Q: What sequence folds into this?
């Protein structure tokens, strides 16, 4: 493994979209489980309005990285700054309430609930009326429900899943489940959207749809996106900047073209003879 | 032969010759079943939302009843005492989350289970230290006496029709349920997941049924059911043939239901709307409820003895179930609860706070415990043994499934009715006391045949 290649300085490689401010930054983050070091001294940032790809071979620590950002894992060392607030670690509730939404590598939907209900859970933090009012479905509670329902219906229309609105998601095919999961994350109206392998296991057509959705989300919803993906052509087409991890270490960071030409990245993916 | 006759035939004859009395027994069973359901409900709520089997549920019932009686002994009026006890249960839920559950996030289920056992011992001691350990009576102002409106009798056929209606509706619901599960499994696991034709067990049952049915004719004209005074052998053979017919019909019905589900799954795949709408369940449920309600009204008018206290208990349980259903289905918190039950990580990622949900769940379970405490305490006094009704809830849960609210209700009803009917009709033949063990034997049988319970989620493990 040749991990000793200098990571490129972030500022120079991001010159093309330097107009965006830093939305989230991780500094010197290290995370270990017992003796296994999942992340070793990783630093990188995500700028407002960009699509940031995180790539790397299996076991490189990509999902651990998302889990750190989203507060599922608490790193032993490091600082996380989101929207200017410095923290040692995130908590899921804080992450969600401050505008970080995510999807999961293995679809994590509420299987027993319908598509509509699943996406409605994304509005949980935005609904404020009391339990009793909701139960009796009166006045303000009803208006609130309707307001959020309208927002959810717009998302359903956008993702073209109107026909499965009432279907329990456990019954949907995999590609549609991924779409519903994206819908649930969008319902949170996030500032930062974390997508963990949004196209894994999809066929070409589904991938094309998903790419289109992701680009539209970035442009029209004004959402910053960090995504993990294995399909290199997708990564190169979609992302503005790419960070490459290997065995928990950042080995490259820059525009797709830069990363593609980086010898350390090529070695990590293809292997080198020692 | 006499013993067999007493077990297999005699009870049916008694039932058929005195349907009014049978109705009385069934209604009594339903009412006491509702009380079992109430206890089981507390378990289901916590198990659904956190996957924890709450060993302390029984003691929570005791604690609620003790607090209620304690407050009333100090001169607090009944309604105020109930409200105050409710507040105590809410506070208890808060403290449990704060002191125990907070430190148990992400722990193994068995550890959480052990924690609830610890809670059991603590609550028991705490309750008795606070309110005293002597046996107390709880008087909630409803007499534990039969309710009886004399003077009107109803013709047996009407009563029979009402019961047939209720039974038919339940049967139809079961068939639809079977169709729905079949459809779901096909949709999720593919066409080979469910076979429409009966399996080996079904075939064996059918063969047995046919043999039983034919057995009657093997004995010639002597064994025929002759009007007048049939011999015991004749009656035995006749019932054998009828039950054989019932067995064949049951298997055929099961296959028909599966076929219905299969057809629906085919339509799903083709993008056609399902011919069977969920609304049918609701409609049939309503029909069944109406028939049962009509049955109760008619029964009271005709002079059947119905215990007014148990009727009150049933009404209270029904209200509680409706409120809980609304809570789970219609509120933002209910949606969050279902979400937490389905997937912890996903729930966290949309900003649902696990801790908040746990407080709510334990508070609701505490209030259900209060309701059970009022009813059971009022029925049999408030004392330590009250916490042992949790043991009666176990078979109910095994029967209904640990994750299903309707399961808790239906399981309670089946056990309540089964117990009473078995005691009254089969008790004399085996020397009585069936009520004490019936529920557990039934649960054991269910564990062998359908371990996930009637309404529980099937446990599928990919290996």
A:
């Amino acid at each position: 493994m040749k991990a000793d290649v200098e990571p490129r300085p972030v500022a120079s490689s991001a010159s093309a979209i330097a107009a965006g401010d830093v939305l989230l930054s991780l500094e010197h983050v290290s995370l270990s489980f017992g003796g296994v070091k999942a992340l070793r001294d990783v630093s990188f940032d995500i700028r407002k309005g960009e699509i940031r790809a995180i790539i790397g071979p299996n076991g490189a620590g990509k999902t651990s990285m998302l889990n750190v950002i989203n507060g599922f894992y608490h790193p032993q060392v490091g600082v996380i700054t989101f929207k200017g607030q410095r923290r040692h670690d995130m908590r899921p509730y804080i992450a969600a309430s401050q505008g970080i939404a995510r999807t999961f590598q293995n679809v994590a939907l509420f299987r027993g609930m319908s598509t509509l209900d699943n996406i409605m859970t994304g509005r949980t933090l935005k609904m404020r009326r009391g339990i009793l009012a909701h139960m009796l479905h009166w006045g303000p509670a009803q208006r609130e429900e309707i307001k959020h329902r309208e927002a959810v219906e717009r998302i359903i229309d956008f993702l073209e899943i109107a026909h499965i609105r009432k279907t329990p998601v456990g019954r949907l095919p995999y590609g549609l489940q991924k779409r519903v999961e994206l819908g649930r994350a969008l319902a949170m109206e996030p500032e930062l959207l974390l997508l963990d392998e949004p196209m894994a296991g999809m066929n070409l057509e589904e991938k094309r749809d998903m790419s289109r959705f992701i680009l539209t989300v970035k442009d029209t919803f004004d959402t910053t996106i960090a995504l993990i993906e294995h399909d290199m052509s997708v990564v190169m087409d979609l992302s503005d900047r790419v960070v490459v991890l290997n065995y928990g270490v950042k080995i490259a960071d820059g525009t797709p073209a830069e990363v593609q030409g980086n010898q350390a990245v090529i070695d990590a993916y293809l292997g080198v003879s020692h | 032969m006499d013993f067999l006759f007493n077990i297999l035939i005699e009870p049916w004859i008694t039932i058929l010759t005195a349907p009014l009395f049978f109705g009385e027994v069934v209604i009594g069973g339903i009412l006491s079943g509702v009380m079992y359901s109430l206890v089981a409900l507390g378990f289901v709520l916590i198990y659904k939302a956190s996957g924890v089997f709450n060993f302390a549920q029984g003691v929570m019932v005791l604690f609620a009843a003790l607090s209620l009686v304690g407050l009333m002994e100090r001169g607090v009026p009944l309604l105020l005492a109930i409200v105050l006890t409710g507040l105590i249960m809410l506070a208890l839920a808060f403290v449990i989350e704060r002191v125990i559950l907070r430190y148990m996030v992400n722990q193994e289920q068995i550890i959480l289970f052990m924690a609830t056992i610890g809670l059991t011992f603590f609550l028991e001691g705490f309750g008795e230290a606070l309110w005293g350990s002597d046996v107390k009576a709880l008087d909630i102002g409803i007499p534990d006496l039969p309710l009886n409106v004399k003077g009107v009798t109803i013709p047996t056929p009407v009563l029979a029709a009402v019961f047939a209606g209720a039974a038919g509706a339940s049967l139809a619901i079961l068939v639809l349920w079977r169709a729905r599960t079949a459809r779901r499994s096909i949709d999720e696991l593919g066409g080979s997941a469910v076979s429409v034709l009966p399996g080996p067990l079904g075939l064996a049952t059918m063969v047995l049924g046919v043999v039983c049915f034919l057995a009657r004719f093997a004995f010639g004209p002597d064994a025929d059911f002759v009007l007048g005074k049939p011999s015991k052998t004749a009656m035995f053979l006749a019932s054998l043939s009828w039950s054989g017919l019932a067995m064949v019909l049951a298997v055929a019905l099961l296959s028909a239901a599966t076929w219905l589900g299969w057809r629906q799954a085919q339509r799903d795949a083709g993008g056609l709307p399902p011919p069977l709408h969920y609304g049918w369940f609701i409609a049939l449920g309503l029909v069944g409820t109406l028939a049962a309600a009509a049955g109760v009204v008619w029964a009271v008018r005709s002079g059947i003895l119905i215990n007014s206290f148990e009727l009150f208990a049933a009404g209270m349980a029904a209200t509680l179930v409706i409120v809980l259903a609304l809570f789970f289905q219609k509120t933002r918190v209910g949606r969050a609860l279902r979400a937490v039950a389905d997937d912890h990580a996903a729930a966290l990622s949309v900003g649902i706070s696990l801790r908040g949900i746990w407080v709510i769940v334990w508070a609701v379970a505490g209030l259900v415990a209060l309701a059970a405490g009022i009813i059971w305490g009022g029925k049999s006094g408030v004392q330590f043994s009250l916490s042992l009704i949790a043991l009666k809830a176990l078979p109910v849960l095994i029967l209904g499934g640990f994750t299903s609210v309707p399961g808790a209700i239906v399981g309670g009803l089946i056990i309540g009715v089964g117990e009473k009917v078995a005691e009254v009709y089969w008790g004399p033949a085996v020397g009585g006391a069936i009520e004490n063990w019936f529920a557990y034997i039934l649960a054991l049988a269910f564990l062998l045949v359908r371990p996930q319970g009637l309404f529980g989620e099937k446990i599928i493990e990919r290996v």
User: Anything to note?
Assistant: Chain A touches chain B through 33 residues (CB under 8 Å). Confidence is low (pLDDT under 50) at residues 1-19 of chain A.
